């Protein structure tokens, strides 16, 4: 949907960090080596792992700089707190919690592969140097990219391991492996693959922190069953109207590796036919108007009156959106439910464009990527490049 995704995930920190413990003998030596501005010195062996470094089957090399205490090591689903510094092999430091003076905490399965594997080798208090090959880091060097490329060198100190709750053992599982518990039985039939489901959900972390709650929105979300993410589609296909389920949806970047969703299937119905792909979807026609920002637009159906919404207003609309190759990625029309949202809470092209309209009007917009979701990124799950929307303004809600 334009306003919000059906379920949200927790963004991951893709970092690493290191800082010496002032109470250890090794710390005194490390502190003495650091400049007064707390900027870690570049390791002498930054360019390549020394002969005495350990190496895993994946190619990750490491060397213990400071011993830790105990035997407990984190698992991939744990949250860790670390200090770290990272260098490219030419000695350029690209990130450091030490220089910022603040350690970092993150789910261990939400970072680069070399970190996920490497930090699991450590115990609390340990400091280790890693030489991470590019296929376990950010990939090869790419000119103009903001991310470091090639093999990377990190000094990491593990400060704390925080275990997050695990998925209960007494859950049932879908054929696709999603764990769930039925908390309230529903009645009647189950939805078919060609139907639209209307539902409520509350998404939380494994530690019970609320990420999103559809009950805080003006209307419950609806979506064609076959357009939902596979895990959600499988769950809804097995539910009856009125049924409540607690589901543990796999989400590698979330603490504990899951998002806990309390899902209620409210109703379902046959999906309305999809709107036809616009003939001019690939590019704005010559008779389209254009704003200074680059949005092209054309009135399809005239509205009534002169009142137009402001950016601070809430509006109710019907819409459909296509990429320039004619693929429809979203539509309130196929859901059979108008969308209502604050005009300031959507992509910039919508915020600007809908302010040109009056109630009852239907307009086509060609929105450049800079005012939409940005360039196309394979695997991102969001449409990229220029997007085409047909929007009908039904009401200015205020």
What does this structure look like?
The protein is mainly beta. The chain has 3 domains: 25-162, Roll (Chitinase A, domain 3), CATH 3.10.50; 172-270, Chitinase A, domain 3 (Roll); 289-396, Chitinase A, domain 3, CATH 3.10.50. It has 6 helices and 21 strands. It has helices at 25-33, 97-100, 113-119, 230-237, 332-335, 348-354, and strands spanning 54-55, 61-66, 79-88, 93-96, 104-107, 127-132, 152-162, 172-173, 179-184, 195-204, 210-213, 222-224, 244-250, 258-270, 289-290, 296-301, 314-323, 328-331, 339-342, 362-367, 387-396. Strands 1, 2, 3, 4, 5, 6 and 7 form a 7-stranded antiparallel sheet that branches. Strands 8, 9, 10, 11, 12, 13 and 14 form a 7-stranded antiparallel sheet that branches. The longest helix has 9 residues, at 25-33. The two termini are 21 Å apart. Residues 1-36 have low confidence and may be disordered.
């Amino acid at each position: 949907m334009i306003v919000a995704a059906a379920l949200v995930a927790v963004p991951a920190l893709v970092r690493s960090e290191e800082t010496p413990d002032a109470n250890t003998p090794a710390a005194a030596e490390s502190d003495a080596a650091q400049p007064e501005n707390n900027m870690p010195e570049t390791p002498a062996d930054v360019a390549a792992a020394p002969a005495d470094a350990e190496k895993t089957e994946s190619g990750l090399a490491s060397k213990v700089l400071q011993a830790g205490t105990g035997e407990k090591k984190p698992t991939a689903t744990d949250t860790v707190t670390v200090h770290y510094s990272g260098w490219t092999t030419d000695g350029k430091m690209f990130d450091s919690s030490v220089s910022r003076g603040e350690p970092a905490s993150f789910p261990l399965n939400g970072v680069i592969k070399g970190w996920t594997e490497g930090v699991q080798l450590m115990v609390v208090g340990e400091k280790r140097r890693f030489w991470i090959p590019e296929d376990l880091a950010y990939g090869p060097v790419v000119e103009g990219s903001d991310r470091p490329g090639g093999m990377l060198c990190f000094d990491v100190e593990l400060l704390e391991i925080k275990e997050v709750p695990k998925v209960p053992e007494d859950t049932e599982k879908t054929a696709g492996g999603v764990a769930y518990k039925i908390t309230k039985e529903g009645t009647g039939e189950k939805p078919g693959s060609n139907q639209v489901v209307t539902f409520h959900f509350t998404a939380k972390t494994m530690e019970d922190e609320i990420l999103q709650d559809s009950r805080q929105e003006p209307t419950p979300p609806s979506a064609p069953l076959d357009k939902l993410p596979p895990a959600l589609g499988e769950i809804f296909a097995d539910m009856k109207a009125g049924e409540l389920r607690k589901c543990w949806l796999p989400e590698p970047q979330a603490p504990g590796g899951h998002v806990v969703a309390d899902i209620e299937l409210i109703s379902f119905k046959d999906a309305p036919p999809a709107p036809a792909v616009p003939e001019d979807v690939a590019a704005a026609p010559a008779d389209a108007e254009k704003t200074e920002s680059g949005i092209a637009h054309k009135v399809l159906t005239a509205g009534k009156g002169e009142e137009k919404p402001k950016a601070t207003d809430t509006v109710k609309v019907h819409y459909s959106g296509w990429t320039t190759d004619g693929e429809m990625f979203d539509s309130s029309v196929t859901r059979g439910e108008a969308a209502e949202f604050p005009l300031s809470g959507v992509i910039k092209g919508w915020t600007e464009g809908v302010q040109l309209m009056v109630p009852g009007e239907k307009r086509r917009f060609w929105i450049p990527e800079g005012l939409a979701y940005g360039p196309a990124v394979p695997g991102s799950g969001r449409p990229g490049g220029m997007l085409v929307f047909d929007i009908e303004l039904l009401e200015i809600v205020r």
